[in-house]
Amino acid sequence: MHTCPHCGEATIPAWRKSGATSLRPARCGRCGGLSYVSGWTHALASLLAEVALWGGIALAVALQRWAGLLVSILGLAAVVYLVTARSKLVAVAPEAVRKARARFVLEMLVAAAIVWGLYLAFGPGQGSG
Q: For residue 92, what are the CA distances in angstroms to 21, 51, 74, 96, 102?
């Protein structure tokens, strides 16, 4: 269990901490406070997981043995450990979570509008033919 930044009690499970983001923060079982792991930590974890995955695959191909994939598994386990054990939880207010979710929805709508516009402009049937 990990320490809640609101009440200081060890109430947040490792699996919940590792996935806690500003959109889906972890909730303390004691005080109900919300907290998440920094986005930079998740970005670093993703990069390390990618390196572990492809490094293990490359090693398996180079050695021509399945045992090289063990590096991928161990690397991914190390990344999960780093995210859960070594990162700090950041306290967040419920209003900030609502704002982050609203911003995310807006960003997805803008991205969908851009993709739709590109499809209409350059999609099938728009060729000069």
A: 10, 31, 32, 7, 16
